[in-house]
Amino acid sequence: MATSAITHPLPAATGFASTLRIFGKETKYEFLKLMRTKSFSLSTIGFPVMFYVLFGIANRNAFAGSIHIAKYMLGGYACFGLIGAALFGIGVGLAGEIAAGWLELKRASPMPAPAYLFAKCASAVGFGLIIVSILTAIALSVGGVSLTFTELIKMLGMTIVGSISFASMGLLLALVIPANAATGIVNLIYLPMSFLSGLWMPLRFMPHWLQGVAPALPTYHLSQLMLSIFGYADSVSLATHWNALLGFTLLMLGLSWLIFHRKEQNA
Amino acid sequence: MPLNAIAYETEQLAAKTSVSAPQRPIATLINVTKRYGATVALDGLSLSLHPGEVVALLGPNGAGKSTAVKLLLGLIAPTSGTSRVFGSDPREATTRTRVGAMLQVARITETLRVREHLDLFRSYYPHPLPIADILRIAQLQGIEDRFFGQLSGGQKQRVLYALAICGNPDLIFLDEPTVGMDIEARRSLWQQIRSLSAQGKTVLLTTHYLEEADALAHRIIVINKGRVISAGTPTEIKRNNGGRTIRCQTRLSREFLQTLPSVSNVEFNEGAVVVTTSEAETVVREMLLRDETLSNLEIASPALEDAFLALTRNQ
User: Which residues form the domain of B272?
Assistant: First the structure.
């Protein structure tokens, strides 16, 4: 029965247009899914908005030297929001899809794997942009914050950069944490990391020994890049922050790649 | 041993007319071994699937059924041996455009509508079936705008079936397809599987329901501990494992019946005798010659279940 390989005609590789269509549909439905998953959309959008309203707006008239605290906090909560969207959307979402066997079924289909990853990443970027836009609208309307057009565009650009960077961390988390504990574990990483990097309140108001922890955290480097748009960054050079963020992203992607291949071999 | 009327047996054979003559296989596993650490999931397993066939893969839990399916789907690579689908490595993307799969999935995205799931999956394939056809075949009309999370267990299974066939594939893997379906839905899915086969498509089915394998499969491959322990048509499997039973009322003695060739068991039960034999025709002819008063004659094949138990127990 086991005869040698017989060649059967296979359809030509799908064209560029159809690949593009797959990327589009995959992204559309990933975004729709996240939007409709209320536990995700309400909390990832709701928490940064609520915190900013509570703490940012309260500081609408507060200044520390030339720093407008409400504007400083806009940068911090923008990072807090976009990181949450990336870690929960990808980390928790993907962990669940792996555990349920859904990813396996997709892998058995002709779906191009990059389309799947792109959809996740693009949705994280989309949510990041939504959150940052809402925060900015609040800051401009009731926070007494003024932004130049250039600052606004740079903020949105940095949101895209940050979302992609932390999407890589979401990917790694999805591969290593069990799905039923994913939300809890992500919170345990996300919340302390945000606090220690000064995303909730400016680092200068924190104990000195705590300030020393921040440079070890990727969240700190992203927030400094965001704050540098307003001229609020600390004395460390921007190149250092960029390198740290890039190094962090590559490390996360490299580890994910290793773990994925190890899992595939042991599958 | 449950007795089935022989008429049923004949009818079934007639229903399976498209049993393929030896043809070139479209999918093969050749001497495949798959190890997970110290565990051997598949141990030198070979099997082949031919166009138009419905093949059932049977085996107890942990026998290696899912591993075999995953190898043919290219989800895992064999430790040694070869896996070929349409002449190429199943891990290649182009091979997958001709393959559909229904795997055991805990759940798929619950916040997408049935129609949206189909729209997405159709986009993966170069020549998908029209949505209306898929809805009709998988009997999803009327629920196409519901969220997956709102569906019943049987409806969810039908959506997964729809995803398996939406790309109009030539080779379809169905892993426990009718779990959670009521009897009516199960029968109608069987009808769909038969019509796939009639269109020349190949179906590999794993199932816990032996009745399902018996009713659908042209060929059954029984595996246990990663090896093929028996393969053949359902009738062959049943006949080769336990033989057929003759039930009648007769004056012949137990001692005499036991001396007849190929008789493996004689039991008296409520005034009737039940003789188990691998050559029912010869034994019956002899019995009729010896006892003119013989009455209420029935000849039956054992249920596949009994053959299956006999097979896996002997391992």
Answer: 242-313
